[in-house]
Write a structure and sequence with these properties.
By secondary structure, chain A is mostly helical. Chain A has two domains: 53 residues, Arc Repressor Mutant, subunit A (Orthogonal Bundle), CATH 1.10.10; 138 residues, Tetracycline Repressor, domain 2 (Orthogonal Bundle), CATH 1.10.357.10. Helices cover 63% and strands 0% of the residues of chain A. In chain A, helix 1 crosses helix 5 and helix 7 runs antiparallel to helix 8. The longest helix of chain A is centred in the middle third of the chain and has 25 residues. The termini of chain A are far apart. At the A-B interface, helix 5, helix 6, helix 7 and helix 8 of A face helix 5, helix 6, helix 7 and helix 8 of B. Chain A binds a DNA duplex through helix 2.
DNA sequence: TGTACATCAGTGAACGCGCGTTCACTGATGTAC
DNA sequence: TGTACATCAGTGAACGCGCGTTCACTGATGTAC
């Protein structure tokens, strides 16, 4: 009791399920891959290198993942969780139904892309060829759901109203494109520096106020 | 003269610059890589496989390209040319300054992404790490220039007016995001099927009519 | 509490593979006289 | 027109490399009695 640590047996890093050999290789592998993807691009990681970074033998990852693609899927899954949480937190910081809540969700999205461009790209390159990952698809829909909820509240309609779906998709397209252009072009092309918040507010207003057809 | 081919010495496929050994390996390699990228994703091509498809030895490509990255750059360069031409042609099919011209440019962009999702993705994954390819950057700016021109004509302002740049960037973000979401999600998430033309017209109108701040 | 056993995370050596790139070469073409 | 030479696109063999994955193993932990 004179120790400075918590009274429990002090879980190593993340998952406290046990204090086994390594402690928590799975999470550390995912972190290592995240790093690698950030440094060398979506396809620029190898199981071997990830194991090296986690300080284990090259065979160790196979105790936690079936094969290479499954590791990538793990990274994407984790990233999608974080993205959704960030979006939800952003929305919660503003009044329900406000335009600010919508813009804040967009900003969280852009911020994620900017903070982890490699992982962000990975999330969206993986959709091809990994169709048989229903959990990833579900998580993707959850993320979209956050936008839908905010748009519905803003328009004072039900989430499954086609108008809401349409506007939410517009918002998402826009923010998605902005995110990608931002990380691809860095500062170029867009000669003028953009204030993201102003920008997202303008767009949210334009999309959520525009009449359906014309 | 009794032959069924044309009177000239019948250039093999594309560039007629000479009837050398192979004829026109460079173009055929680029075509092969395009195919491979389409099939196996941006990083899923190898110099060896491309050579195999073009029917030459694995060393032959190095007579036309310095190394692997240069081949990819060649593919991207060619793709950007085609994209710009498609956008220009789309704009030319409508009255200068019309909203239709803007929407048509957007549609050309989306169509390109849909027709060649792999190459489209490649174009935008390459921007990282290939900063030292000024020709690619120039071509990218040319593509953006097409949008800027149309937006300027539509708003009746000069192309370098900040308002024009801003609106053009908004349009591009939106269309870019829509393109990516479309090829990533295929039909999913967007529960309702989208009529691209209506969609792009609505967006063009919303963006080019929206007031700057609020 | 102590012993025997089952579990299973991590080891380390090994495999076969396809890749990117190099090299000296060959042989068809274009050019100068 | 004919011959000698320079050019250079494509060859094919070879290299070293890092990778993904497998395998029998070891040794720390948790569990039953």
């Amino acid at each position: 009791m004179s120790n400075d640590t918590s009274p429990t047996d002090a879980p190593p890093t993340v998952t406290p399920k046990s204090g086994y050999h390594h402690g928590d290789l799975r999470a550390q592998l995912i972190a290592a891959v995240r790093d690698l993807v950030e440094t060398h691009g979506p396809d620029g990681f190898s199981v071997a290198e990830a194991a090296r970074r986690a300080g284990v033998s090259s065979a160790a990852p196979y105790k936690h993942f079936k094969d290479r693609p499954e590791i990538l899927r793990g990274v994407v899954s984790e990233a999608m969780d974080r993205l959704r949480l960030a979006m939800e937190a952003a929305a919660a910081a503003h009044p329900t139904g406000s335009l600010e809540a919508v813009a804040a969700i967009g900003l969280a999205y852009v911020d994620f892309a900017r903070a982890e461009p490699g992982v962000f790209r990975l999330v969206f390159s993986l959709t091809e060829g990994h169709e048989h990952a229903p959990d990833l698809q579900t998580k993707g829909e959850s993320c979209f759901g956050v936008v839908v909820q905010a748009a519905a509240a803003c328009l004072d309609l039900l989430p499954d109203d086609p108008q809401v779906q349409r506007r939410a998709y517009m918002l998402w397209s826009f923010v998605h494109g902005h995110s990608f252009l931002h990380i691809d072009m860095k500062t170029k092309v867009t000669t003028a520096k953009i204030d993201d918040w102003d920008y997202l507010m303008t767009i949210s207003r334009a999309i959520l106020a525009a009449e359906a057809r014309g």
